[in-house]
Amino acid sequence: MSTYLRVVSDADVGVRLADPARPPSIASETQLRSVLASLAGVDAVGAEARAAKLATRSIKTASKRPALDTIISMIDLTTLEGADTPERVASMCDKARRPDPHDPSTPSVAAVCVYPDLVAGAKSRLVGSSVAVAAVATAFPSGRASLAVKLLDVADAVAAGADEIDMVIDRGAFLSGRLGQVFDEIVSVKSACGTAHLKVILETGELVTYDNVRRASWLAMLAGADFIKTSTGKVSVAATAPVALVMLEAVRDFAESTGRLVGVKVAGGIRSAKDAIRYLVIVNETAGSAWMRPELFRFGASSLLNDVLMQRLRQTRGVYVRPEEFSAD
């Protein structure tokens, strides 16, 4: 058990540890607050210093190619613009399936992420591939809508074939202390997902403090999240290394407490292979090797893939290639 977390007994909060496949049982807001209050504060200076130190780590040349392939396999290739068209999504799906059409050894990405109305087209385009279709929902990116509207948003995406749902929490509710409301919404959305995996977007840039990031991470996991995600990519402060470290500590400690593994997705502002490798180091050194796979770690990105492909091709040719060698989608 991490020294950051005081052990809370089953008698204190009614947490079920016998069945790791189910989230711990939180029967009341009082129990929820008890669990969250048990979390020690984050040492902000320490978290930032550790993240900075890990960012200086390098990997051996022989490990570079496997690292690049791992990054590709972890990418949620994303387009979330008002001008998105079925044709653009189809092109992105083709790239997701075969990122480098000239090299069949290039792995497919983990998923494509689109708005709910574009799910059906993406699903059809990806038939026979390993690429999942993720949809943003619950009034993305603000999260400001009634629960009924949010659940309809999820139901539409699931009915269209979404394999994964990326929901956003109501940050206003969280910051004003309405923790039970946020918890209940996640529980309801998780139920509406059916067999689809649920990623809960915390929008960490709006949570202000690392303490809030830790508490929001635990709240989402207690409510049944399959992944916790940093950002929508629609605010100025998106994923940062210290925030990722805090979230990875949270999933590690949650796994130690409950036996259930929850994934982490970092999104927004990650554009280079160098940055992505830094995140892989943080993942391995903080949560451990179990999270070094797309089932438990993802990059939400639109432009990262091209840089990774360029670096990958450089490993083969020994020289840098032009970005034009790969499609913009």
Describe the protein's architecture and organization.
With 329 residues, the protein is of the alpha/beta class. It has helices spanning 10-13, 29-37, 44-55, 61-74, 86-97, 119-125, 147-159, 171-175, 179-193, 210-222, 241-258, 273-286, 304-317; strands at 75-78, 111-114, 132-137, 164-168, 197-201, 227-229, 263-267, 297-301. The chain has one domain (44-323): TIM Barrel (Alpha-Beta Barrel). The chain has 13 helices and 8 strands. The protein has an 8-stranded parallel beta barrel with strand order 1-2-3-4-5-6-7-8, surrounded by 7 helices. Strand 3, helix 7 and strand 4 form a beta-alpha-beta unit. Helix 10 packs parallel to helix 11. The protein is globular and about 60 Å long. The chain starts with 9 loop residues before the first helix and ends in a 12-residue tail after the last helix. Residues 1-22 have low confidence and may be disordered.
Which secondary structure elements does this structure contain, and how are they paired or packed?
Elements: H1 10-13, H2 29-37, H3 44-55, H4 61-74, E1 75-78, H5 86-97, E2 111-114, H6 119-125, E3 132-137, H7 147-159, E4 164-168, H8 171-175, H9 179-193, E5 197-201, H10 210-222, E6 227-229, H11 241-258, E7 263-267, H12 273-286, E8 297-301, H13 304-317
Parallel strand pairs: 1-2, 1-8, 2-3, 3-4, 4-5, 5-6, 6-7, 7-8
Helix pairs in contact: 3-11, 4-13, 7-9, 10-11, 11-12
